[in-house]
Amino acid sequence: MNLTIGDKVFLKMPLPFLKTSDPMPMLRPSELVSLEELGVVVGLRPVDIVEVRFRRGTFLIPIENLLLEPKKQG
Question: b/e for 52-71, b at 16 or more Cβ within 10 A?
Answer without folding.
Answer: bebeebbbbbebeebeeeee
